[in-house]
Design brief:
CATH topology of the largest domain: Dihydrodipicolinate Reductase, domain 2
Number of helices: 14
CATH class of the largest domain: Alpha Beta
Structural class: alpha/beta
CATH superfamily of the largest domain: Dihydrodipicolinate Reductase, domain 2
Shape: elongated
Number of domains: 3
Helix content: 25-40%
Bound molecules: L-homoserine
Strand order of the largest sheet: 11-10-7-8-9-17-13-15-14
Strand content: 15-25%
Length: about 400
């Protein structure tokens, strides 16, 4: 079966490597071989073992009826969307690792795939090599999913783990993550939580069966987390993790991406470094945890190749996963309830005026007091916080 790869960067070249390295076992399992016929890229790769496959115009792939399977590893919404749409409309099935494309256009592309009797799949878009999408769309189709809580950004998990372990400050650990190639030169998408937000939007769309607009998910990153926050967390026996979360509320879900204080008896506490983990609670299954490499060329390419085998086994039919191109109204995030850890320069008398009974958790630092609130709604907390003033940092308890 002939395959085309669109975008020969880290992931695209990883896909070629997986197809080459594991050619025999893939052929044995599938019953036929997956042969690379085209690679679409504007750059030249004269020394590449697949140098004869390169094309610069996606229409070369569109019009070749022999190509049934296409990999999209270009990134970004355009021109990826135009290219993927053209492939689906010409009867080819597509797998992508591109979370921006899936979060923005997933439901639309699924509908185009359905209308054309093909498939659009995206295992590598969330959790890299962790097979979480197929777990949700196949293995757990008998469950109502009550909650997903994911550490789904390796860069920020690496940074938080190192801040915790070495007491480093945010700026110091960011430049270290950049020099190691984890964080991008412009780290905004990772550190401000946008990447995690798109990933939980995709997972929530799948479990809800309707389209979640990622722009409606309240999202905070880790750029305000300091070494001092970690000192407090440690003194309380907690860690701080960037968690993307969706909790079932009636017919819909309540979502948020934020740093949370997590304690050792919670599964996500133990996920460190660049690793990702997705905790899923099903109404029949109970708790489960999926852990593994959330990024990197080969783990991500491994998920893409798994998708290729799935597509190759289903070239004659569209496989429904039940993600309708219909907007899901998320539950009001202001009604979410948390206990909050607060650092403030306000006086204790003012703290008690605004928050009533609190638990102080002091490190004897000059000019600040730290306390834990009772559980309350986000709306109520924000009102009291504004009235208190002098707030240095706030972290929710998971
Ligand atoms: N920047 C992402 C991460 C890459 O750090 O997890 C994988 O989506």
């Amino acid at each position: 079966m002939k395959v085309a790869i669109m975008g020969y960067g880290t992931i695209g070249s990883g896909v070629a490597k997986v197809l080459d390295t594991n050619k025999d076992i893939i052929t044995e399992r599938l019953g036929e071989s997956l042969d690379l016929k085209y690679i679409l890229d504007l750059r030249d790769f004269p020394d590449d073992p697949h140098k004869d496959c390169f094309v610069k115009d996606y229409k070369n792939i569109v019009k070749d009826k022999e190509v049934k399977l296409v990999v999209e590893t270009m990134g970004g919404v355009e021109p990826a969307f135009t290219f993927v749409k053209a492939m689906l409309e010409s009867g080819k099935s597509v797998t992508t690792s591109n979370k921006a494309l899936v979060a923005d256009k997933g439901a639309e592309l699924m509908k185009i795939a359905k209308d054309n009797g093909t498939n659009f799949v995206f295992e590598a878009a969330v959790g890299g090599g962790i097979p979480i999408i197929r777990t949700l769309t196949a293995c757990l189709t008998g469950d109502v999913i009550e909650e997903i809580a994911a550490i789904c950004n390796g860069t920020t998990n690496y940074m938080l783990s190192n801040m915790e372990q070495f007491g480093s400050d945010y700026d110091q650990i960011l430049s270290e993550a950049q020099s190691l190639g984890y964080a991008e030169k412009d780290p905004t998408a990772d550190v401000e939580g946008h990447d995690s937000c798109r990933k939980i939007a995709i997972l929530t769309s799948i479990i809800a069966g309707k389209n979640v607009d990622y722009k409606e998910i309240p999202t905070e990153g880790i750029s305000k987390i300091s070494a001092t926050d970690f000192k407090y967390a440690k003194s309380m026996g907690y860690s701080i993790k960037l968690v993307a979360r969706a909790v079932k509320k009636g017919d819909t879900y309540s979502c948020r991406v934020a740093p949370y204080l997590v304690k050792p008896d919670q599964m996500l506490y133990h996920v460190s470094g660049v690793m990702n983990a997705v905790a899923v609670v099903g109404n029949m299954l109970g708790e489960s945890l999926y852990y593994g490499a959330g990024a990197g060329a080969l783990p991500t390419a491994s998920a893409v190749v798994g998708d290729l085998v799935f597509l190759a086994r289903n070239t004659d039919k569209h496989v429904r996963i039940g993600w309708a191109n219909e907007h899901l109204q998320l539950a009001d995030s202001n009604e979410q309830r948390f206990k909050y850890f607060v650092r403030t320069s306000a006086l204790q008398s003012n703290i008690e005026n605004e928050f009533g009974k609190v638990h102080y958790t002091d490190l004897d630092l000059d000019d600040e007091t730290a306390f834990i609130t009772e559980e309350m709604t986000e709306a109520e907390f924000n009102e009291r916080k504004a009235a208190l003033g002098g707030v240095i940092s706030v972290i929710r308890f998971f």
